[in-house]
Design goal:
- It is a single chain.
- With about 325 residues, this protein is α/β, with parallel strands linked by helices.
- It has two domains: about 1-255, Aldolase class I (TIM Barrel); about 265-330, Non-ribosomal Peptide Synthetase Peptidyl Carrier Protein, Chain A (Orthogonal Bundle), CATH 1.10.1200.
- The chain has helices spanning about 25-30, 45-50, 55, 75-90, 90-95, 110-115, 125-140, 160-170, 195-200, 215-225, 245-255, 265-280, 285-290, 290-295, 305-310, 315-330, and strands at about 1-5, 5, 15, 40, 45, 70-75, 100-105, 145-150, 175-180, 210, 230-235.
- The strands form two sheets. Strands 3, 4, 5, 6, 7, 8, 9, 10 and 11 form a nine-stranded parallel sheet that branches. A two-stranded antiparallel ribbon has the order 1-2.
- Helix 9 links the parallel strand 9 (about 175-180) and strand 10.
- Helix 10 (about 215-225) packs across helix 11.
Length: about 325
């Protein structure tokens, strides 16, 4: 699969952009575990235009995680254009590798974003969505522009088949589709039939990336074989489970599940993840922001509740590394 001149190989697996999740430490871990491409957290266009330090910092990427996409969101055309230009200059503005792709977030369903017309809120205004996309593409002649979106606003407005054509016609170089409407949020099952319909449309020639409810090898294989997508993006199933990329690739190659990583393997991965988080964010933030991941790394261990509570409440670096050693010793 190619996005512009960027070749991701056959049947690539992509880490979905997720706010407060896909920071630099998690992106690096997922890359090491087989992700073919990773994305930053959502970067607000208004924040970039104001030169807000937090927004600019989200664009900091490293060569080790490349190829990497920087995802921007917003609902004001002028701000989106300026934010896109800044994302295209991310290596200069934020340091590091920069953007191999600039992605437009037309998919986030949370109220604080969609409620003000950004993210999947734009699904109610397809003409404006296309207008913004066209302007962003024109502002970035040397960087591929892609879009991530949903099926539509609600069950009565699933406009994705027509919308996909319009977005392609203004110059995007790949389209990721989450198989739910905005009103579904993350409830119910993702509907891949319309993702498949977009891919089967003879007018479409850009890569189509499917997203939603891919949790293992068999669900990924269905996406590729039953719906014909060019790539698959994985989001919530990566929480505390970054080796899912290796699992899926193993299944696609061998037709059977990969052996489950041992507790010692998971401890080693959690320890490395924590170390990178501390190196990039310092204390206590590097520990605090690891909690959402650490609470998932060891799901299913028996009689783990008390240990888990200690692990996700301490802000002491040595204590936390000690708890990880204890997990390996007791359950390994």
């Amino acid at each position: 699969m190619k996005i512009g001149s960027l070749d991701l190989g056959p049947r690539p697996l992509l880490l979905a952009p997720m706010e407060d999740v896909t920071d630099l430490s998690f992106r690096r871990i997922c890359k090491e575990q087989g992700a073919d491409m990773v994305y930053t957290e959502f970067v607000p266009s208004e924040g970039l235009v104001r030169d807000a330090a937090k927004a600019v910092a989200k664009m900091h990427t490293l060569d080790e995680e490349a190829p990497v996409g920087i995802q921007i969101y917003g609902h004001i055309l002028e701000n989106m254009v300026e934010a896109a230009r800044m994302a295209g200059r991310a290596a200069e503005l934020a340091g590091g590798h920069g953007a191999d792709v600039v992605d437009i977030n037309f998919g986030c369903p949370v109220t604080k974003i969609a409620g003000r017309g950004a993210g999947s809120g734009m699904m109610r205004y397809p003409d404006k969505m296309v207008e913004i996309t066209k302007a962003v593409v024109e502002a970035l002649p040397n960087v591929p522009v892609t879009v991530k979106t949903r099926l539509g606003w609600d069950e009565n407005s699933k406009i994705i088949v027509e919308l996909a054509e319009r977005l392609q016609d203004v110059g995007i170089q790949a389209l990721t589709i989450h198989g739910r409407t905005r009103c579904q949020m993350y409830k119910g099952a993702a509907d891949w039939t319309l993702i498949g319909a977009v891919k089967a449309n003879p007018r479409m020639h850009i890569p189509i990336i499917g997203n939603g409810d891919v949790t293992d090898g068999p669900s990924a294989l269905r996406g590729f074989e039953d719906y014909g997508v060019d790539g698959i993006m994985i989001g919530r199933a990566t929480f505390g489970h970054p080796w899912i990329f290796r699992e899926i690739k193993y299944y696609l190659e061998h037709g059977e599940p990969m052996p489950e990583p041992s507790v010692a393997d998971k401890v080693a991965l959690a320890r490395r993840h924590l170390q990178i988080s501390l190196e990039t964010k310092g204390e206590p933030r590097g520990i605090y922001e690891m909690r959402r991941h650490l609470s998932c790394y060891f799901k299913g261990l028996p009689e783990f509740k008390e240990t888990r509570m200690r692990m996700v409440t301490t802000l002491d670096r040595e204590e936390l590394f000690g708890i990880l050693d204890e997990i390996e010793s007791r359950w390994g």
